[in-house]
Amino acid sequence: MRDKYTKKTFVLEIIGILLAIIFLIPFYFVIINSLKSFPAILLDAAAFPKEILFSNYAKVWEILNFPKAFWNSLIITVCSITGIVIISSLAAWKMVRTPGKFSNILFIFFVSAMVIPFQAVMIPLMKLGGILGIMNSIYGIVIMYFGFGVSLSLFLYHGFVKTIPLEIEESARVDGCSQFAVFWRIVFPLLKPITVTVIILNTLWIWNDYLLPLLVLQDAELRTIPLATSSFFAQYTKQWDMGLAGLVLGILPIIVFFLFLQKHIIRGIATGSIK
Questions:
Q1: pTM for this one?
Q2: Is 95:107 a contact under the CB 8 Å cutoff?
Q3: Which residues contact 233 (CB under 8 A, 6 or more apart)?
Q4: Does the pLDDT value for residue 99 go beyond 90?
Q5: Which phi and psi angles does 199 have, rounded to 5°?
Q6: 3-state SS of the chain: helix, strand, coil percent to 5?
Q7: Containing H/E element for 47?
Q8: What letter does residue 238 receive in the DSSP assignment?
Q9: Distances (CA, A) of 94 to 45, 70, 87, 122
Q10: Which CATH number fits domain 56-274: 1.10.1760.20, 1.10.3720.10, 3.20.20.10, 3.30.870.10?
Q11: How far apart are the C-alpha atoms of 186 and 169, rounded to whole Å?
């Protein structure tokens, strides 16, 4: 029997549409103003451009050396995500499969780290990075992302591993699989839904992060896209036409990536957390 279309459903749909429009308004301003000249933006930022200037994007591409900034962002994101997935999945699996007081305490420490704001550890982190000699380097910031990204990822993996029957792993061990072979051949493929979720959430965070790269990457050749784009917004001069075009170029890859994998987010989180 089909569900009846009630007034409550209609009201909820209207509310959903209105919320969607509200959230899309900033994208409208960014896109239309990235196609205007600077005087046209100052004259009326909300108006549709009378003359569409795609030349803004060409100028930004050259000024920012966009391919280099894109490559830096890509390398940092891919390496960080790879390490976070490997470390958090292995750690969560080991904690679940070796229950005890030590595993419970360790899990509590990881979960507790999720509530500590970055600003609270920012200065000590920079001092430690200087002592270890990992400042102003790609591998240094990747290591830092490992530390900040593992907590949430481990929490998600921890809940998902509990849904995997232990009998599957025991059967593999009887057949002669080593401990790591059991994980990589049996367990890890079953973690695909939550792995996709972990990848999406951390990619959105790392790709758009500004503060940590600002503190760690001083060399202009190591700038990520957010750092490169920020050069258009100085203290006394703001090049809105160039800056907004740079923002569009920066968010376009991540939007495409998100739309391509968004269907896995809710399913992965629900399965990993509720079960």
A1: 0.85
A2: yes
A3: 239, 243
A4: no
A5: -65, -45
A6: 80, 0, 20
A7: none
A8: B
A9: 54, 36, 11, 30
A10: 1.10.3720.10
A11: 7
